Amino acid sequence: MMEPQLITPIGVGDVVTKAEQAKRDGNRLVQIGCTKIGDDFEIIYVYDKNYQMTSYRITVKQDDEIPSISGVYFGAFVYENEIHDLYGIHVKGINIDFKGTFYKTVIKHPFSVTIVKEDDSCQNK
Amino acid sequence: MSKQITVPFGPQHPVLPEPLHLDLVLEDEKVVDVIPTIGYVHRGLEKLVEKREFTEYVFIAERICGICSFIHSQTYVQGIEQIMGLEVPERAQYLRTIWSEYSRLHSHLLWLGLFADSMGFESVFMNAWRLREHILDDLEATTGGRVIQGVCKVGGVRRDISPEKLDEMVRGLKGMEHELQDLSKVFLHDNSIQHRLRGIGVLSKEDAYQLGAVGPSARGSGVAIDIRETGYAAFGKINFKPVVEYEGDCYARCAVRVKEMFTSIDIIEQCAKKIPDGPVDMKVTGAPDGEYFSRAEQPRGEVIHYIKGNGKKNLVRHRVRTPTFTNIPPLVTLLKGCDLADVPVIVLTIDPCIGCAER
Questions:
Q1: Which tens digits make up the pLDDT trace of B310-355?
Q2: Contact, B58 vs B74, CB < 8 A?
Q3: CB distance A1–B82 less than 8 Å?
Q4: B322 φ, ψ (degrees, to nearest 5)
Q5: Which among B188, B213, B186 has a CA at the least distance from the CA of B202?
Q6: Closest approach of chain A CAs to the CA of B273, in angstroms?
């Protein structure tokens, strides 16, 4: 079995502070990812040092604005542009802001909608 | 101050098998700034979790990339198994380890061929790909697929390898070793190649770590990150050391890949000796309810599959953070200050896999 993982919920206002703390502690930025849960969007920031992951989760609405951590971790711009282009969440202060052209998708913000399934019972019983 | 001009590089370029675009801001022949652009072939495969049951989705995860296909499926099923608390049979873990190292071998040989071709060494390119055919033949013989293996499933693997075949595979790899040594000598000792790679595209250790470099791009700069050390699959029972170089230039990144091929052969040999008898799969019931970041070491570096399920047949979310995606910021940094003529070689040394990045 692999290592247990804990994702700590934080407020939007703590995102940059936690990133600065992670950097001071010698962590690298592993990824930032977004998940749509109902009308909410969960964004998870993952840092790593010596194969120990530290993860923080914020929950926002699509109209909310979240701060960029690209001032702390330069490489964050790829994840933040991705979140904007796929989910339509505005990220303020990205160091390299593609302004919606990072991904060229036919449908705007394609991951911000969920395909509704009529039958969601599991066949794998 | 010289006048600045912007030169577009890609998305169609002789050294790029896949579309990546760079806007290179030049002063004379020097690159002073770089704006990367991807997104030309974004497929949105992650969105298909809403249409495919989590057991079927293995086939989609495997099709994210045609080079790291096996490791994508392995990482995905590991995540599902972790959420569901499944103890996969040990023999299946060893088989996964063997196939993932075969994937690394064929990927590195593919890259070495392309890299040689980018520098005009066509005979080396053909030799590297000739050797790669042996690896693909073994993959096909044991899994049924050369590019997409389709052998990983939640709870184990679909096929076993007989002891006789395992012996034959190890003998084949040992027989290939002297040919790989000959190939390695060209990349590690040839004067022309050293002249082309030494001191070019230098990424410092600190930059590599802070910018999120992974795989040979990180290890070539002295950052010893290799997710195999976490012991997933059977790696926890195998003795190996990550290959690390310290110069941080194109030569170092090339040397890491060359030396890793021999590490992979050694790992496969150890697996063949240690693999226990027993079943290769287990019955799986129910559906995943929880979330997990599953990690593995692909030929290009750390890959992460984030999986979130709610106990129903379709996952809530499957997100893949591929090594190429996180190697883009380091690429931007190491291109700054280089000569325009060196850009193709430097870009190739991060081994960009746009298929993965545009999953």
A1: 888 888 888 899 998 899 899 988 899 899 999 989 988 888 877 7
A2: no
A3: yes
A4: -90, 160
A5: B213
A6: 23
- Which residue from B44, B249, B256, B134 is spatially nearest to A85, judged by alpha carbons? B44
Distance from CA of B346 to the nearest CA of A (A): 18
Tokens (6 digits) for B88: 């996969």
DSSP B49: G
Q: B42-357, superfamily in CATH?
A: Cytochrome-c3 Hydrogenase, chain B (1.10.645.10)
| DSSP reduced 3-state for A37 | strand
pLDDT of residue A123: 53
Cβ contacts below 8 Å, chain A against chain B, sum to 114
Q: How far apart are CA B354 and CA B358, in angstroms?
A: 6
Q: What is the CA radius of gyration of chain A?
A: 16
Every domain of chain B and the residues it spans: 42-357
A22 touches chain B (CB under 8 A): no
The β-bridge relationship of strands B317-321 and B21-27 is unpaired
Interface probe with A: pick from B48, B82, B210, B310, most Cβ of A within 10 Å: B210
Length of chain A, please?
125
pLDDT at residue B1 above 70?
A: no
Cβ of A102 under 8 Å from any chain B Cβ? yes
Task: Tell me, yes or no, if the pTM score tops 0.95.
Answer: no
Most B CBs within 10 Å: which of A34, A50, A74, A114, as the mutation test of the B interface?
A74
Find out whether B150 and B158 touch, Cβ atoms under 8 Å: yes
Q: Which ipTM was obtained for this model?
A: 0.89
Concatenate the DSSP letters of all residues of B238-291 into one string: S-------SS-SHHHHHHHHHHHHHHHHHHHHHHHHHPPPS-SB----S--EEE
Least Cα separation, residue A122 to chain B (angstroms) = 4
Residues 6+ apart with CB under 8 A from A119: none
Q: Is there a contact between B216 and B250 (Cβ–Cβ < 8 Å)? A: no
Residue B348 DSSP SS3: helix
Tell me how far apart the alpha carbons of residues B317 and B47 are, in angstroms, rounded to a whole number.
8
Domains and CATH numbers, chain A: 7-104 (3.30.460.80)
Contact B134, B176 (CB under 8 A): yes
Euclidean distance between CA atoms B127 and B114, whole angstroms? 11
